[in-house]
UniProtKB/TrEMBL annotation:
Molecular functions (GO terms): 4-deoxy-L-threo-5-hexosulose-uronate ketol-isomerase activity; zinc ion binding
Ranges that cross the membrane: none
Descriptive protein name: 4-deoxy-L-threo-5-hexosulose-uronate ketol-isomerase
EC number: 5.3.1.17
Catalysed reactions listed for this entry: 5-dehydro-4-deoxy-D-glucuronate = 3-deoxy-D-glycero-2,5-hexodiulosonate
Domain of life where this protein originates: Bacteria
Function summary: Catalyzes the isomerization of 5-dehydro-4-deoxy-D-glucuronate to 3-deoxy-D-glycero-2,5-hexodiulosonate.
Sites where the protein binds Zn(2+): H194, H196, E201, H243
InterPro entries with a match to the protein in the record: KduI (IPR007045), KduI/IolB_isomerase (IPR021120), KduI_N (IPR027449), RmlC-like_jellyroll (IPR014710), RmlC_Cupin_sf (IPR011051)
Record bears the keyword Metal-binding: yes
Protein's pathway: Glycan metabolism; pectin degradation; 2-dehydro-3-deoxy-D-gluconate from pectin: step 4/5
Family: Belongs to the KduI family.
Gene transcribed to yield this protein: kduI
Length: 276
């Protein structure tokens, strides 16, 4: 497992693009046939991907966790953005089709990730946080998520927030997770931007081709910096940072939060006129 130390609220202001990327961007995801994980210093989040081909893949037991198995004291949210597959958790099988979510509860021991067709492998994206209690592993298909439509074509931000792992749907500890899909012609997410001092957040952008990029804005509202991201790239937002982007086309992104509370609406909106 890779370790990632991000940068603090002062030092990010003096960083080059390459340094900002090294601190906040995770761009080694979705390697075929591998489990790829990065352990961050932001709320001890782990972000990664699992792309099984012929053989099933598992989560490693690792020194970073200081536990006998991955979920001994952790919860995981998984969303499949590839072909169909199955995740087996302690003998229970969960079919994972496109954009299905699986919440894997603390103390789940034997977790196997498989693809139905190695030529069109499942692409499991995951985010994990420390968990203080043991709840229930829960599958949430896209139709069973909570859908929130917002924005408008006029403001280029017409989008649907799909909340799959959230209170009322899944009994999780810290994790709140889902994905936001932008309509054709809309390019702005999280407009107006916000911070939530009580939670950090990780975005992973996908569903656009390599001729396009998302320009992701981070930092304090008065000192934003941008990161130019290809599809399949994740970006870590400490609690002090805005996290909002504009694409050169429409796109989808998975967001995942952890921290002090699970109140999605506990955010401080920043008017665009106050961003610089
Ligand atoms: O704290 C919430 C997260 O930043 C996202 O859910 C926001 C988002 O998907 C959007 O407005 O486009
Ligand atoms: Zn947010």
């Amino acid at each position: 497992m890779k370790l990632r130390y991000t940068a603090d609220i002062n030092s990010y202001k003096r960083m080059t693009n390459a340094e900002l990327k090294e601190a906040f961007v995770v761009d080694d995801l979705f390697t075929p046939g591998e489990t790829v994980l990065t352990y961050t210093d932001v709320d001890r989040a782990i972000v990664g991907s699992i792309v099984p081909q012929q053989k099933p893949l598992e989560l490693p037991q690792s020194k970073e966790l200081g536990s006998d198995y991955f979920c001994e004291r952790r919860e995981i949210g998984v969303i499949n953005i590839g072909g169909d597959g199955v995740i087996e958790v302690d003998g229970e099988r969960f079919a994972m089709t496109y954009k299905d979510s699986l919440y894997i509860a603390r103390e789940s021991r034997d977790i196997q990730f498989t693809s139905n067709d190695p030529k069109q492998p499942a692409q499991y994206y995951l985010v994990s946080y420390p968990a203080h209690r043991t709840t229930k592993t829960t599958h949430v298909s896209k139709p069973n998520a909570k859908h929130i439509e917002l924005g408008s074509a006029v403001e280029s931000n017409e989008r649907t927030i799909n909340q799959s792992i959230r209170p009322g749907i899944v009994d999780s500890c810290q994790l709140v997770m889902g994905f936001t899909e932008l309509e054709e012609g809309s390019v702005w997410n999280t407009k107006p931007p916000h911070t939530h001092r009580r939670r950090s957040e990780i975005y992973m952008y996908f569903e656009y081709n390599d001729d396009n990029r998302v320009f992701h804005f981070m930092g304090e509202p008065s000192e934003t910096r941008s990161l130019v991201l290809a599809a399949g790239t994740a970006v870590i937002s400490p609690a002090w940072s805005i996290h909002s982007g504009a694409g050169t086309s429409n796109y989808t992104f998975i967001w995942a939060m952890g921290g002090e509370n699970q109140t999605f609406d506990d955010m401080d909106h920043i008017p665009i006129s106050e961003i610089s």
